[in-house]
Amino acid sequence: MTKRYYFEDLVPGLTFELGSYTVSREEIIEFASEFDPQPFHLDEKAGKASILGGLASSGWHTASITMRLLALGLLNQSSCQGAPGIEKLQWRKPVFAGDTLSARMEVIAARPLRSRPNLGVVTMRLETRNQHGVPVMTYDNPALFARREVGG
Q: What domains appear along the chain, each with residue ranges and CATH number?
């Protein structure tokens, strides 16, 4: 696959709309059963009795959906070499069955690496919203991208 985006292309202020994904009740329960087995992610009654107000997706499920949208919407078309982590992760509102999530990425910083001149660090701000435009999750993600021209 031809890489479309290199470090040099990802300048602060650039944004990408990354697509959307509709969450089902079944996958909320399936994900939680395997990775986050808390009652409000597994059972309607427990969800309604919680501060979430209903059966809600695990925040890690929401993060995984966002990662899928980021990979398909940008990373798989880029020279991304991975990431050292994420920063400032916030789960802002619960995600319920039937919600359609959309993700948007904005480049907030970019700098070449001195220690590895063939790479640069691009800090991306990810925001995931529900179908009402309400932010449900945000985080900052520094990632390593290959440079098109070393020292360029």
A: 7-146 (3.10.129.10)
